[in-house]
């Protein structure tokens, strides 16, 4: 039997109200007596009120009736779960009610010393993200369940550049949370290909009653990232970018999701990247704009020219007010 099963077995045996020695427990479970000692220590560390009486009639027993299964987590594991719950809640996790119930249960069945430790670490830890949209919760729950059960969905989807929603039938393969937004990765029966859809653009959602098989070994995460990042398998299509700047500015730039993956060489005041031409002509200038005079583009020339165009248009825009 596994460690968890043996620990639960010890708990159930002691929860009958009987006092049992380590030898009796070892014989009952057919395990080594030294293993019993380790399991007893682990149960006590997780908050189970086990007491040990020495002497001829001694043994292990419960301090009082214990009807709930213990949470087999040490204090650092409990702290990590509370911190992780903070991240999930701020991201708009769709099962927040169940999550909060789990954290409440964790705190309820831990011992006073562990509870004090967890509370002190919780008070000093905060997560700040864009406010979660509560209206998305039911959509996210429906999508997550459909992904797990392999159920196709019908949706009305409002694209950013269209005035009216469009009906689509999708096979949802996964949910992705990226930069403050939720995306569903799905096979679109309208376009006959796998696509990503912003969940906050879904106007309505319902099940079609049709089941589907998710492609074997498909990774929604990999699909999504591959749509964002340069194609490193075709280096001949990538263009070298050389940027000089203050070290702190380059440090920050290299942490960006695009530039961090495209970095090829870095020194204190210089950074070299390889990025596709389409990205350079579209959004790269806008990512570089906030760094102002803290950085200087040395190559390619057309990126410098693009920066001039972007900044000139920005100046004209504000001069018209």
Automatic annotation (TrEMBL):
It holds the Pfam family HTH_11. Residues 8-60 form the Helix-turn-helix type domain. InterPro entries: CBASS_pafABC_assoc_protein, HTH_11, WH-like_DNA-bd_sf, WH_DNA-bd_sf, WYL_dom. Residues 139-205 form the WYL domain. Coiled coil: none annotated. PANTHER family: PROTEIN PAFB, PTHR34580. This is YafY family protein. It comes from Neobacillus novalis. The lineage of its organism: Bacteria, Bacillati, Bacillota, Bacilli, Bacillales.
């Amino acid at each position: 039997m596994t460690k968890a099963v043996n620990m639960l077995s010890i708990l159930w045996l002691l929860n009958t109200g009987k006092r049992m020695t380590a030898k009796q427990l070892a014989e009952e479970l057919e395990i080594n007596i030294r293993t019993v000692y380790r399991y007893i220590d682990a149960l006590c560390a997780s908050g189970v009120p086990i007491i040990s009486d020495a002497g001829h009639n001694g043994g292990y027993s419960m301090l009082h009736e214990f009807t709930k299964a213990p949470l087999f987590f040490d204090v650092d594991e409990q702290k990590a779960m509370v911190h992780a719950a903070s991240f999930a809640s701020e991201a708009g996790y769709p099962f927040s009610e169940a999550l909060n119930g789990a954290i409440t249960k964790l705190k309820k069945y831990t011992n006073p010393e562990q509870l004090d430790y967890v509370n002190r670490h919780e008070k000093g830890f905060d997560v700040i993200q864009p406010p979660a949209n509560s209206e998305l919760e039911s959509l996210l729950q429906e999508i997550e369940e459909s992904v797990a059960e392999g159920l196709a969905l019908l949706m009305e989807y409002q694209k950013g550049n269209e005035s009216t929603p469009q009906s689509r039938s999708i096979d949802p393969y996964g949910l992705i949370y990226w930069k403050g937004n939720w995306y569903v990765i799905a096979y679109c029966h309208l376009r006959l290909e796998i696509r990503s859809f912003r969940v906050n653009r879904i106007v309505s959602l319902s099940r079609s009653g049709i089941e589907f098989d998710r492609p074997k070994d498909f990774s929604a995460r990999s699909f999504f990232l591959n749509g964002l990042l340069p194609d490193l398998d075709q280096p001949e299509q990538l263009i070298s970018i050389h940027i000089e700047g203050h070290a702190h500015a380059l440090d920050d730039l290299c942490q960006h999701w695009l530039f961090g993956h495209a970095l090829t060489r870095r020194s204190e005041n210089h950074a070299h990247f390889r990025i596709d031409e389409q990205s350079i002509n579209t959004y790269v200038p806008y990512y570089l704009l906030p760094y102002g005079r803290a950085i200087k583009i040395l190559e390619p020339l057309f990126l410098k020219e693009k920066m001039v165009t972007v900044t000139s248009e920005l100046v004209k825009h504000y001069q018209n007010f």
